[in-house]
Each structure stands twice: as C-alpha cells, then as structure tokens.
Amino acid sequence: MRVLVVEDEQLLADAVATGLRREAMAVDVVYDGAAALERIGVNDYDVVVLDRDLPLVHGDDVCRKIVELGMPTRVLMLTASGDVSDRVEGLEIGADDYLPKPFAFSELIARVRALGRRTSVPLPPVLERAGIKLDPNRREVFRDGQEVQLAPKEFAVLEVLMRSEGAVVSAEQLLEKAWDENTDPFTNVVRVTVMTLRRKLGEPPVIVTVPGSGYRI
C-alpha cells in the first residue's frame, strides 16, 4: 500500500510516516498543501493522510482536488478540532474518514488499512494463495501452517503479489507500491527482495518470474 502523509507539524508527520513504514507501507511525506497537490499529480496513492489546516493550500482544497480528479485515492482527514460540525463538513467535502487529534496510532493504522482495502476490488481480510496465508492486520505470514518471519519490505512485496490474485506484477509496479519516491528507480532492490522472499518462503518456490514482465504467485 502506498500512502501520502500531509501534515505541517513535521515531527508528527515524520513520526506517522515512520510508524506506517513499520507496518510495511510505502510512505511519502510533505508538509504543505501545495506540495501535496504536486505529489498527487505525479504518484498514485492508495490513501492520503491529510491534515486539514495546511499552509499554502488548505487541506479542504487538496481533498476537493482529489475528488474533482476522480481518483480512487482514499482520504483520511486529520484535524485538531473534534467538533461534530467539523467532522461532517470534512466528510461532505469528500474525505472518506475523519480522525481528530490527538489520536491513538493503532487506530490510525487500522483506519488507513481499512481505506486501503476500499481502493481496489474487495478482498478478504486474510489473503490465501498457493499454501500461503497472509494477514495484513496482524502482519503475519504462514506457509503450510508454519509461520514465516519477513522484513517489512518483504511483507509489502508479498502482499502486493497476493492481492494481484495470480496476475503478473511488474518490477515497476512493485517499486511503486512497496517503496517510497526516494528509491532509485534503476536500483535492483526489487529483484533482491524477491530473491530473499523466495528463500524465506521455502520449497517449492511459489513466486514465478515471468521473463520481461514481472512476477506472480
């Protein structure tokens, strides 16, 4: 899942991004509304965690732009105000969910994951394919009943492949979904991660390389 965090309190923004990355999400961070519009115009995000009171361009206007463009991106709006009228206004603008500050980080993660599931074809909470069972919420992976310990990026790559339901996923798509924009697009990080993931999942291999196209399970 790829997430954009838009928050002008830099310490909070960076803390949220760090926490989401630990949950195997690819996260970009900006600190004002103008930068958010720039990123949205370049990258495809599953979820935008959007502070409402932003400098340069207000969060409401960023949300309106996402709706206007007809993007499948889901918006979780943050605000220091917990008034019902503010929540209603934010939802009417086009936000998909609303979370007042201060918030419990576990709730933020749960809401981001729930919104992420709504950006694509609905799938069951626990993904199962080829003897692999992946639980995104618990961040657990089992193969043939045996738990497999994965690093965050390995988990993210496996989740993207599982969600594709047998379709081929290109290295570029994996890079876009599992890594943030600071990753060198010419790096071999995808190939190395897939190799490590194959080894950890054991024999027989379940990740198939489709020459010239990508990978599938």
Automatic annotation (TrEMBL):
Residues 124-217 bind DNA. GO terms for cellular component: cytosol; protein-DNA complex. GO terms for biological process: regulation of DNA-templated transcription. Residues 2-116 form the Response regulatory domain. This is Transcriptional regulatory protein CutR. It holds the Pfam family Trans_reg_C. Keywords: DNA-binding, Phosphoprotein, Transcription, Transcription regulation, Two-component regulatory system. Member of the two-component regulatory system CutS/CutR, involved in the regulation of copper metabolism. CutR suppresses a defective melC1 gene, encoding a putative copper-transfer gene, probably by altering copper metabolism. It comes from the Bacteria.
